Amino acid sequence: MTDKKRTVVITGASSGVGRAIALAFAANGDQLILASRNMAALQELAQECETLGAEVNCIQTDTAQYHEVINLAAAAADFGNTIDVWINNAGVLAVGEFDKTPMEVTEQVIKTNLLGYMNGAHAILPYFKKQGYGILINNISIGGFLPVPFGVGYSASKFGLRGFSAALKAELSAFKNIHICDAFPAFLDTPGIQHAANYTGKQLKPAPPVYDPNRIAADILKISRHPKPSTMMGSTAVFLRYAYALAPGLTRGIAGYVISGYLKNAAELPATNGNIFNTVKYGNAVHGGWGIPGKPRAHHKFLSLGVLALAAGIMLLNKSKR
Questions:
Q1: How many angstroms separate the Cα of 316 from the Cα of each of 126, 259, 303?
Q2: 96 with 200: CB under 8 angstroms?
Q3: How far is CA 212 from CA 36, 92, 117, 215, 289, in A?
Q4: Chain centre distance of CA 175
Q5: Maximum distance among all alpha carbons in the chain?
Q6: Active site amino acids
Q7: Which domains does the chain possess?
Q8: CA–CA gap between residue 217 and residue 6 (Å, rounded)
Q9: How far apart are CA 45 and CA 34, in angstroms?
């Protein structure tokens, strides 16, 4: 590849980490194709990116709909002649007991989070093969390694993404200049939890520590410059991955205990489908307001050590009872 201006496609760009990724790539001088279901939010974001000097095209796209993703790839090729980077990022979340969450909601989570990424890969690979190069980045999350109680559909989609990507990498091993890169960030300070379908009857908050999505965006930009097959983002993500690998039953038990305890004491809210089937008019910023401004690193390290100490204590207690 040359040092020419790159053409970058970002799905789920209208809010949260997708919005942060778009702004990071705009500041890098890339030309962008921004995609999501929320055209109004995309157009607002496009203006921000253009002030940073980027050329931008917005394409309204539901990644769960294969033909819309095919049209997105065609529009991107027309806009940039080549497509250098494709970032699969669009995702949704449904929270609630599995048997109390409507199956059509769980099905839509799978369609968006898993099939949406597969749609993106299927649409872009013919372009990459014709060019002889290209970078596909899958923003998966630590949920690809750690099962989430009360988020069964979400976990199914994220675990599925790891298998899909691993198989695709093996299939493309002969294409040395086509890179499939998986990103696994920890919990993020985004509006995503506000957008979630919620059947718990309780107010939802992300589990601390939450990371600044701008930090993740910077890491995604690094991956686009120096592709890597897999990148864990944040010490919490690394810890949770290996905690589950070493003690899966214990880790599941802790996760279930913590989430159940939180839900018992959380404020009550009516059930909602969130943004599962339609866009919402709120929460289109980068941040969700869950972080502690000015102290992100110290806060993350403190909480990560606390979680580690708690897990170690429970493991020792569990062994002493045998």
A1: 52, 22, 20
A2: yes
A3: 21, 19, 23, 5, 10
A4: 26
A5: 65
A6: 154
A7: 7-320 (3.40.50.720)
A8: 17
A9: 9
Min mean pLDDT across 21-25, 242-246, 289-293 is at 289-293
What whole-number distance in Å separates Cα of residue 67 and Cα of residue 71? 6
Question: At which residue do the structure tokens 């010490």 appear?
Answer: 235
Nearest partner of 27 among 54, 64, 9, judged by Cα: 54
Helix segments in the chain, DSSP class H: 16-27, 39-51, 66-80, 103-110, 116-131, 152-171, 192-195, 213-225, 235-246, 248-265, 296-320
Closest by Cα among 205, 249, 202 to 100: 202
Among residues 230, 69, 247, which one has the least CA distance to residue 144? 230
pLDDT in tens, 209-218: 899 999 999 9
Structure confidence by residue, pLDDT tens digits, 9-51: 999 999 999 999 999 999 999 999 999 999 999 999 999 999 9
- What 3-state class would DSSP assign to 260? helix
pTM (predicted TM-score): 0.91
% of the chain exceeding 70 in pLDDT: 89
At 153-172, the pLDDT tens digits run 999 999 999 999 999 999 99
